[in-house]
Amino acid sequence: MVKFGTGGWRALIGEDFTKCNVQILAQALANCIKSEKAEEKGFIIGYDRRFLPDKAAKWVAEVMAGNGIKVYFIEKDAPTPLVMFTVKTLQTQYGIAVTASHNPADYNGIKIFTDGGRDADEAVTTKLESYIDRIHGPEDIAHIDFETGVKRNSIQGINPFNEYIDTILEMIDTESIKNRKLKILLDPMFGVSKTSLQTILITARCEVDIINDRHDTLFGGRLPSPTSHTLHRLKDMVVEKKYDLGIGTDGDADRLGIIDEKGNFIHPNSILALLYYYLLKYKGWKGGVVRNVATTHLLDKIAQGFGEECYEVPVGFKHISSMMEEKSALIGGESSGGLTIRGHIKGKDGIFAASLLIELVSVTGKSLSELLEEIEKQFGSFFMVENDFTFKSAEKERLVQLLFKDKKVPGFEYPVRHIGYRDGLKVYFENGGWIIARFSGTEPLLRIFAEMSNERDAIQVSNEMKDFLAL
To answer: pTM of the full predicted structure?
Structure first.
């Protein structure tokens, strides 16, 4: 069974992520490409370092080649943003990355990209699901052997690494970074960011050390997601060895987590705020900001302070990139750690975001903690609490009934300004705070995010929602 969520298709290896289902998805994509008469544009395939991702990538290539579609096969494991960049630069209609991003090690998946290197939107995934429904067995799947495809030049190996790195280097102020002589500790979390980030940082004359960079399909027993709970070793070493910055990236390098010089985890909300504030104030750029429904409203305040607009969209980076294009927004991002800026790829890029953050530290001459204090003085305090809850299918029906059919809400202590149902139940309070309860699009979880001006109030409204839902 192949069903798309907010980040493509992700499934348990051996349960739904099987050779058969990968081939079915590939044939559906091939049928879609042929229906759009885009065979001549070719097709990009990349993969990360999960369990046998190169095998799955080859299964897709064999089906594409069997359908007469030229395949450009990235020969080494690659960051997802590099794959998106390649779709953009080679101007193909579609491309994929075999990855389950930050999901646990027993998952794999496929992210689908469309022209310009953007995440496939709902219209595309709905169309693909309709093609999938029409595939009934092996007789409906055309494929040739991978080696045969290479011999016929139907499958061509490529390595777009240099072009991707050079593009990022052209977009950042490397001279300012060189003058700062920063000492950086990088944690790729056993994923694919090492070579790209190391190359960029060394080119900019940073001193770079790396941990957790071997190929480990179990990700060292951790979730490959750069959070305050998974970056303990990075935190400890930044303080102990006096690094200026610690950088963690998730499994496919489209998201990042930051440790400042004091060993503090800098929440992705703060990273977004820092970069938006930096681009507006220190670089003098203009433009609005796009965030999803579960991302900090500090961005709204910063935008307002500079005479710009903040646009709210559902979770899923495809919504962010679409709104950025529509409004010519300067930056877009989400509280899970993904972001991009105008002029770069139309998807999240942890490697580029880390490079831009290092530029920020170098140009301003200030630490991240100093800059966050500067922002807080101007725009106030924002504190977010995040909780994830697992559930069984019967329990989900109860929650859906309560939240979205009966439309019940807790009796909050704080006056409510507005209630919205865009991608979950979101309650906006009169004091500027908010809380949202929504189902994850990538895992069987109910997520509750609450943001208030202080920790006590954020925890309180979060607990009120939790108790109301009997979680």
So the answer is: 0.92
